[in-house]
Amino acid sequence: MITNRLRLAWVLSAAVSVSAALAAGCGEREEEEQFARRTITVKEVPASVMDSAGKELPGVDFTEAWKNVEADGALHSYEIRGRNANGKIREVRVAADGKILEIE
Predict the structure, then answer these.
(1) β 100-103/89-95 pair status
(2) In this structure, what CATH number is given to the domain that contains residue 39?
(3) Position 17 in a domain
(4) Cα 72 from Cα 74, distance rounded (Å)
(5) Angle at 8 between CA 7 and CA 12, to 5 degrees
(6) 100: how many CB neighbours lie within 10 A of its CB?
(7) Quick one: pLDDT at residue 30?
(8) Distance between CA atoms of residues 46 and 8, nearest Å
(9) What phi-psi label fits residue 87: left (phi over 0), alpha (psi between -120 and 50 degrees) or beta?
(10) What is the pLDDT of residues 54-85, one digit of tens each?
């Protein structure tokens, strides 16, 4: 039979373990992005950025776009989203120079 002290010790032990895992983080953690996302049309995305996105995700029909602007107003990147032939939503973040930053 489990006594109240044993039960309390187990609960406290579990709480400390969970707290330690949360404080340390589980796996790698990405840094918080520090920019504002502004909606734009796909036509407003520069051709060089669209070319890079199309090469990275061929066959995706891009229909949505955002401009990521830093706190000081400087352009950080573009995000472009669309669907492939199977209907799966794909998204790519591209720097203004055409460098691929992230793919989802």
Answers:
(1) antiparallel
(2) 3.10.450
(3) no
(4) 6
(5) 120
(6) 16
(7) 47
(8) 61
(9) left
(10) 999 999 999 999 999 999 989 999 999 999 99
Q: Which two tokens stand for residue 45?
A: 């995305």
- The per-residue b/e assignment along 11-29, b for 16 or more CB within 10 angstroms, e otherwise, is eeeeeeeeeeeeeeeeeee
Domain contains 48: yes
Residue 97 lies in a domain: yes
Q: How many CB atoms lie within 10 A of CB 5?
A: 8
Q: If you write DSSP's letter for every residue of 14-44 in order, what string do you get?
A: HHHHHHHHHHH-SS--PPPP-EEEEEE-GGG
Q: pLDDT tens digit string along 18-49?
A: 555 555 555 444 445 688 999 999 999 999 99
CA distances, 17 to each of 1, 2, 5, 23, 78 (Å): 24, 21, 18, 10, 40
Write out the residue range of the structural domain in which residue 68 sits: 35-103
Nearest-CA neighbor of 102 among 31, 27, 25?
Answer: 31
